[in-house]
UniProtKB/TrEMBL annotation:
Catalyzes the reduction of the glycolytic intermediate dihydroxyacetone phosphate (DHAP) to sn-glycerol 3-phosphate (G3P), the key precursor for phospholipid synthesis. It is found in: Cytoplasm. It comes from the Bacteria. This is Glycerol-3-phosphate dehydrogenase [NAD(P)+]. The active site is at K187 (proton acceptor). Keywords: Cytoplasm, Lipid biosynthesis, Lipid metabolism, NAD, NADP, Nucleotide-binding, Oxidoreductase, Phospholipid biosynthesis, Phospholipid metabolism. PANTHER family: GLYCEROL-3-PHOSPHATE DEHYDROGENASE, GLYCEROL-3-PHOSPHATE DEHYDROGENASE [NAD(+)] 2, CHLOROPLASTIC. It is an enzyme of class 1 (oxidoreductase). NAD(+) binds at G7, S8, G9, G10, W11, G12, A136, R251. NADPH binds at W11, H31, K103, A136, R251, V275, E277. One of its GO terms (molecular function) is glycerol-3-phosphate dehydrogenase [NAD(P)+] activity. It catalyses: sn-glycerol 3-phosphate + NADP(+) = dihydroxyacetone phosphate + NADPH + H(+); sn-glycerol 3-phosphate + NAD(+) = dihydroxyacetone phosphate + NADH + H(+).
């Protein structure tokens, strides 16, 4: 199959390697000519220093590279998905399947990534969400990993399953694209929060409390917006929550630790030096929660810390002294 991967950060690069392993004809697009030239000449992405890029991988800096592609993977940070989709759209075939792997919610519109791509392609292409617990650093060295390909039409989700799946990258299908995409965006806000309490010096009890109660609020919002609670218990939900809240590979978790140690959100993101999606998602999540009338105290507190510089100690006290309630 002819495949274009748009976005040459850690994740776009790791997925290009999976697709090359699976025998596809893959082109990796970078948004700057310098980046494409660097990848082509060095066959190394500094974000994944342990791996050499496959000989068969091609590089591009022009979005006309999607022409004639059977499948196009959108792997830019979420803030760049609309512009990338819009600029690629005139070159796309109507039967090209788009695969969104970016984990976020658009600032302002609060759209999910697949909604953006449907809008930008005028609804002509099917858009599948691929998500799950998958650090690029581990996928690129072929560590066993599992993800979910979500689309309401089973045949479309299965097509993506067939393209990506191999003996180290296991793909399940799901009809619940709303749940999968919301889980992907929400877990980043929780991972940031988990980093904050870790940076403050709290231990495993506090982390387990935060993750479990955050899971409850993620499921509440997801269900109210049309997703299934079961999705939140699966790879795209609980799976990704575990991997992001417990790993030093996670940029969200690392940024949170720095904030918990006293840095501002801006200082933490600059120090991490890669996209920290949870920061952007926190604002949208609070707006969505308010709009649909769902209580999300943990995400609200994360927003207050990130956007209003609220003291982390007072936020923890606020959460721990909320009114008594039944668990479920
Ligand atoms: N890294 C992972 O392990 C991983 C795994 C699953 C999903 N994701 C998701 O994939 C998306 C991309 O993450 P990443 O880790 O590859 O990012 P990254 O931080 O490694 O790299 C971001 C890339 O985006 C490029 N970029 C910056 N501005 C751009 C623009 N305006 N248009 C296009 N590209 C631009 C940068 O040059 C850089 O190469 C995110 O939404 C992330 O949540 C990442
Ligand atoms: O590094 P993070 O925090 O963006 O997380 C990467 C992936 O989403 C993990 O599945």
């Amino acid at each position: 199959m002819k495949i274009a991967v748009l976005g040459s950060g850690g994740w776009g690069t790791a997925l290009s390697m999976v697709l090359c392993d699976n025998g596809h004809d893959v082109t990796l697009w970078s948004h700057s000519p310098e980046k494409a030239a660097q990848l082509r000449s060095s066959r190394c992405n500094p974000l994944l220093p342990k791996v050499t890029l496959p000989e068969s991988l091609r590089y591009a800096d022009d979005l006309s590279c999607v022409r004639e592609s059977d499948l196009v993977v959108l792997a830019t940070p979420s803030f760049a998905v609309r512009a990338t989709g819009r600029n690629a759209a005139p070159h796309l075939r109507r039967d090209t399947v788009l695969v969104s792997v970016s984990k976020g919610i658009e600032k302002g519109s609060n759209c999910r990534m697949s909604e953006i791509l449907v809008q930008e392609t005028g609804g002509s292409c099917k858009v599948v969400a691929l998500s799950g617990p998958s650090h690029a650093e581990e996928v690129s060295v072929r560590m066993p990993t599992g993800c979910v390909a979500a689309h309401p039409e089973e045949t479309v989700a299965r097509k993506v399953q067939d393209v990506f799946m191999n003996d180290y990258f296991r793909i399940y299908t799901s009809p619940d694209i709303v749940g999968v995409e919301l889980a992907a965006a929400l877990k980043n806000v929780v991972a940031l929060s988990c980093g904050v309490i870790t940076g403050m010096g709290y231990g495993d009890n506090t982390k387990a409390l935060l993750m479990t109660r955050a899971m409850a609020e993620m499921g509440r919002l997801g269900e109210r917006m049309g997703g299934s609670r079961l999705t939140f218990a699966g790879l795209a939900g609980m799976g990704d929550l575990i991997v992001t809240c417990t790993s030093m590979h996670s940029r969200n978790f690392r940024a949170g630790i720095l904030i918990g140690q006293g840095r501002t959100a801006r200082e933490a993101m600059d120090e991490v030096g890669a996209v920290v999606e949870g920061y952007y998602a926190a604002e949208s999540v609070c707006q969505l929660a308010e709009k649909v009338g769902v209580e999300m105290p943990i995400c609200r507190c994360a927003y207050d810390v990130l956007y209003h510089g609220k003291q982390t100690e007072s936020v923890v006290r606020e959460l721990m002294t909320r009114a008594k309630k039944q668990e479920n």
